[in-house]
Write a structure and sequence with these properties.
With 262 residues, the chain is mainly α. 56% of the residues lie in helices and 3% in strands. The protein is flat and about 75 Å long. The relative contact order is 0.09.
Length: 262
C-alpha cells in the first residue's frame, strides 16, 4: 500500500498532528525543535504537561544530577507522572535529548555580533561556549551525532558565519574554522570540568616538583626537570590565561590562512 501524504504521522500507536511521512527520515527531535510544541500534541485527554515542561524537567535533572541520570523513569519522577506518560510528549529519549540540549545552549550573546572584527568575535564566541558549558557541565557529556540542525545551535553557527563575513575565506574554510573552535571550546570545557570535579585534592606543585625533579634528572628528562623547577607545572584548574593562550594560537593560524587568500 502506498503511504499516505496526509498531515499526521503515527508514532508509538498514537497520532502526531502536523507531521508528514518524511519526518521519520529526519533526526529525532528536529520537527519539534523547529515547528514547536504543537507538533507533540496527541489525540486523547488534555495532557497535564507540555513538551516545554518536559524539556525543562529533563534539564533540571541534568543540572542537579548530571547527564548520566537522564533516564525516562527519572524524568517522569521529576514530573510526577509515569514513564509511559512521557511518550505523549516525545517519541523517544533521543528526541528529548535533542530538545533539551538545544534549549540548554540557548541563543548566543548579543555582544558577539557587536564585535569590531572577526578575531574579537571568534574570541567572544568561544568564551560564550565555555561559559555555557561551565554553567551546565553535562553539555560536555551530551553526544554530538552530526552537524547542528536545531534552531539555537544553528543560531550559534549563523553568528559565527556573520562574524567571518568579508574575511576572504570560502564557506568551506569558514565552517572548518567553526569546527576547529567548537572542538577547542568543548575539549577545554571537558578538561576544566574533570579537573574541577575530581574528588582528590590538587597536589602542591612544590611537593610534586620535590619528588619528581631528582628522578627526572636521573632518568633523562632534563627539560621537564627545568620546567618543574621553574614552577611552570601544576595540575590545578585551567586558568583563563591558559584558555586565551590556546585560543590565540588557533586564531593566529586562521589569520595566516586569511592572509594567504588572493
Amino acid at each position: 500500500m502506498r503511504p499516505s501524504l496526509s498531515s499526521h504521522h503515527e508514532i508509538g500507536g498514537e497520532i502526531r498532528r502536523g507531521a508528514t511521512v518524511t519526518d521519520e527520515l529526519l533526526p529525532p527531535g528536529l520537527v519539534l525543535a523547529w515547528d514547536g510544541a504543537e507538533q507533540g500534541v496527541r489525540r486523547g485527554p488534555k495532557p497535564a504537561h507540555s513538551v516545554d515542561s518536559v524539556v525543562a524537567a529533563a534539564i533540571a535533572v541534568a543540572d542537579a544530577e548530571g547527564y548520566a541520570a537522564l533516564s525516562m523513569p527519572r524524568i517522569a519522577r521529576q514530573l510526577k507522572i509515569t514513564a509511559n506518560a512521557l511518550y505523549r510528549y516525545v517519541a523517544s529519549r533521543d528526541e528529548l535529548i535533542v530538545l533539551m540540549v538545544d534549549a540548554a545552549w540557548g541563543l548566543p550573546p548579543d555582544d558577539i555580533e557587536a564585535s569590531t572584527d572577526w578575531r574579537e568575535a571568534c574570541t567572544r564566541w568561544v568564551q560564550a561556549m565555555l561559559a555555557r558549558m561551565r554553567a551546565r557541565p553535562w553539555l560536555v557529556d551530551a553526544p554530538v551525532r552530526g552537524a547542528p540542525s536545531t534552531p539555537n545551535l544553528l543560531r550559534w553557527l549563523e553568528v559565527f558565519l556573520s562574524a567571518m563575513d568579508g574575511c576572504g575565506l570560502t564557506p568551506g574554510d569558514v565552517l572548518g574554522c567553526a569546527m576547529l573552535l567548537d572542538g577547542y571550546a568543548r575539549s577545554t570545557a571537558q578538561l576544566d570540568r574533570d579537573l574541577t570535579d575530581r574528588t582528590e585534592p590538587a597536589v602542591d606543585p612544590a611537593r610534586l616538583a620535590g619528588f619528581l625533579v631528582p628522578r627526572l634528572i636521573e632518568r633523562g628528562y632534563p627539560r621537564l626537570a627545568q620546567v618543574m623547577t621553574g614552577g611552570g607545572y601544576s595540575d590545578g584548574p585551567i586558568e583563563d590565561d591558559d584558555v586565551d593562550f590556546g585560543l590565540g594560537r588557533i586564531l593566529d593560524g586562521i589569520d595566516v590562512l586569511i592572509s594567504r587568500k588572493p
